[in-house]
């Protein structure tokens, strides 16, 4: 008997989420269209939409179908009814954002974050989230949850952080601690995987079932969308493209291997190479304190040293991306990070790598490299985690109750 009830609850969650998702995705849709899209009986759609209207989540709209025809009624999401709190806890900064269900930013905040241990990290995060919610409570009608993204390895199903590259953690149950402190559901995941999902829902890979999101920043990582779903694997250590070995005789990586992509292509590696060449007397307009942004700007202005540095990095990155394309064959590769500021320099190099180092199947189906439009909006990853839970994973029914 318990199994039957559990199955019925699952079907109920799935159906109400599917109906609400159809309404949100379309913006305005009739009950007949919902029934067709969700493959539900008309009576079920009527019952579910009535429940959603009573909860204040959707509204009816009248539309004139023709001069003689009667007005048809469509359903639309009630704007501004639901809000989502999102946070990106990076290596040095904490970024917060409050959004509505469409992704519109209502408020944002950033502050330095330099914790010494996981206890201080959690305390600062919770304290800052509380202050942010109190400051911007005028924007909040119904807070669906909070989504948090971090670097490192995250067990998203259990809400536990198992590894962070800049902070010693020991199976940190961050989702549970934040949820208990704020009284709302909390969802956590790796930042790069979350941004891959965000690009799939809202960005440059929207409409494509398979995509690879590659981020070049303090490290190099990848997020994978396979058959329309975020791939997370069974051991959590997925998308570690930065630890593909490029040079067996190269520098030792913090992972223990030698010549990993990350030792050659991440921002600190490019900056270190630049400073070393400048000290050796290579002419350039760059100074010995140049960061990756300055290097990209100099390359765009024609500086030869900067140009050579970025082409070398792009060649190494292109090799790793080509390996991934041969394995996964994504429709799109989405590239993100400061290095994209010199896309006109790195793009031809990466494109050449894909052309010469991947198996050609059909010119019309070749993988294209595009550039992230959401990377500079760090709250989008966490926002997408909560939105997915709301529209696809049963959070909606809990919110209504």
Commentary on this structure:
The protein has helices spanning 2-26, 31-38, 42-54, 118-135, 174-182, 191-202, 262-265, 267-279, 292-300, 304-328, 343-357, 380-392, 395-400; strands spanning 29-30, 58-64, 71-77, 83-89, 93-100, 105-112, 143-150, 153-155, 160-163, 186-190, 211-216, 220-226, 229-230, 332-337, 368-371. 42% of the residues lie in helices and 21% in strands. It is globular, with a radius of gyration of 24 Å. With 401 residues, the protein is an alpha/beta fold. Strand 8 and strand 9 form a beta hairpin. Helix 10 (304-328) runs parallel beside helix 11 (343-357). It contains 13 helices and 15 strands. The protein has a five-stranded mixed beta sheet with strand order 6-5-4-7-10, with helices on both faces.
Percent of residues in helices comes to 40-55%
Low-pLDDT ranges: 1-6
Please report which band the strand proportion falls in: under 5%, 5-15%, 15-25%, 25-35%, 35-45% or over 45%.
15-25%
Rounded radius of gyration (Å): 24 Å
Using the alpha-carbon principal axes, give the shape: globular
Total number of helices = 13
Instruction: Give the averaged pLDDT, no decimals.
Output: 91
**Helix and strand element order:** HEHHEEEEEHEEEHEHEEEHHHHEHEHH
Q: Give the spatial strand order of the biggest sheet.
A: 6-5-4-7-10
Structure classification: alpha/beta
Q: Give the end-to-end Cα distance, rounded to a whole number of Å.
A: 23 Å
What can be said about the biggest beta sheet? 5 strands, mixed
Number of strands: 15
